[in-house]
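Bumping with the actual sequence this time:
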Amino acid sequence: MTGADAEVAPYPFTTREPARAMADVPDPRLDAIADAQDIPKRVPAQVQLVDIAGLAAGAGTGEGLGGAALGQLRQADALLHVVRAFANAEVPHPEERVDPVADAEAVDLELAVADREQVERRLERVRKGVRAGEQGAAAELASLEAIAAALDAGRPARVVTEDGAPAVALEMGLLTAKPVLYIANTDEELDAPAGLAAHAEAQGAQALALPVGLELELAAMEPEEAAELARELELGDTRGADAVVQAAYRLLDLVTFFTGSGPPEARAWPIRRGTAAPAASGKIHSDMERGFIRAEVIPWDALVAAGSWARARENATLRTEGKDYVVQEGDVMQIRFNV
């Protein structure tokens, strides 16, 4: 996904130290914007991926490598859980079977155990606050009890929707509150196993299939040969690493806006859905957010059709937006600011 090197071996827990790398988010709109205006430099949006050690029984209470791994997971915005769905006798499974749902459930349990301990510690403190009459303690207690009840029933914190619970779970950084994508490492299948897809739906998560071995073979081939074989195998237009990166991007509920009203570069910027224009401009530079005045905005396809920012202004397809404007998917923006 990132082009970085990491040790790969046919035994469990090959990864002991986290491996970090950045992955470009494929987006043909960026090239279209740049090509229409003869902009030479294109800078795609990126996501950081961290490969950590697999979790085993006892990880939720910090046994073995579990404590360090859980600490790494708590820093993540979303979790991509790779589960085995391929058959290969040369690659042993710790449990001597191939069952992606069981593997998913095993790790989900460890995350829930860790969350339950964290919630219980918080409950003890908040109950004292309720007895002391602290403001807001009663409402927080109700949220924590709802989360605890869900965890005890085998449900993740992300599915708890009672008033205040999502905000409490987010503030605490609960592992089962994070968005999850299950990635089934298959032989050649392009659909996630039905059981895993059903498990993902029940967990408020998503699932996809990725034939990793096949993708590694394609990656070692010449690009033209790989593309031809991918077409023969009907792997689709967006596949392999690009499919996972795009899925991760969606999982984070990000949208993309662009800058590129002319040379030297066109750039894609990832922001949370619902971000207002001043905060979006802060992604470019903090001075822009601090001194934001207004933004000139145009949909990416309208800019491509116009061929340049100047012609878009001439034909009145540009519009001016103020501080309350919520940036939309595919907007191209030029920020006016003063500091």
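The tokens above came from a reply further down the thread. The mean pLDDT is 89.
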